[in-house]
Design a protein that fits this description.
By secondary structure, the chain is mainly beta. 10% of the residues lie in helices and 41% in strands.
Amino acid sequence: MKKINIILVISLAVLAFFISCNKEPDLRMPNYDDMIVDAVAFVAPDAQFNLNFLPEDAAIFEGGFTVTIPYNNVVSVDVKCAYILSGEVKEVGTLTNVSTFPSYIGINMNDILGMFSALNSPNDITEGMAFRFYGWVNTLDGDVYEMFLNDGRVNASPDIQTLPGASISTLYKTLCNLVIEDFTGAFNCYEEGYGDYPVNFTVDPTFENRIYNDNYWDWAASGSLIYYNFSGDIYQTIDIPNQVFTYGDGTVGSVEGYGEYDACTGTFWTQTDAEYGGGIYATYHEFSSLGTKTFTYYKGRKADLMK
């Protein structure tokens, strides 16, 4: 048997050799994303500045970020900014060029207006705008690598995002003022690890910016509600205080958590801890009247409890 095995191994090796000799050469173009791993600029936001602002505050807007390079083959970085409206890149401007690293750059509204022909004064700043600052990397070899394409697509290897301190852009967004009624009525709830189901939200007539969910966990006892408090400020956060909740089988538990909303799109997400039968179930939800799903990381499931 041992002799047969040796002959078989030799035969397979010879066959593989002839196959490799006759194989057509691989002429595919190299992966461009992988080519720019060694030519990247990090543009990390300054924590003292908020990344969101209201249009009426455009005149007093201030921001800042630091440009660093993880590799030494970069001679300079052109700091670019994409002006984005309703998710579409309208124009790309150049803020400055830096050749020493790290370089800190402070910005104000005059800096933004000076880069774009379509924007002439703070009055031109409206809801739904965004400004993304990123780098064009100039290497010692004379090559230029763009972290983002002009249509807004990321032009960098996904591996870059795993590097310590990785931040290939800083994004400032103009917010919409909260109209709490935009978050009432019939909504779709997407629950990570479970699926989609309908919910209905009603506004609290006395408590400002509070709404009630009539179908939390897709398993609410009749009349059992969960409420969410919307901040109504530039942070667009949601507070879900610890509150008693009765589940569909009559079990009394509790719910608490937090979230964020987007007043421009009328969507929001929440992360809650559902206490049921002595267990805690971390639950992630996305809410949208159109069923939009923009956050997709696993937070848990509870389907077995409902069998």
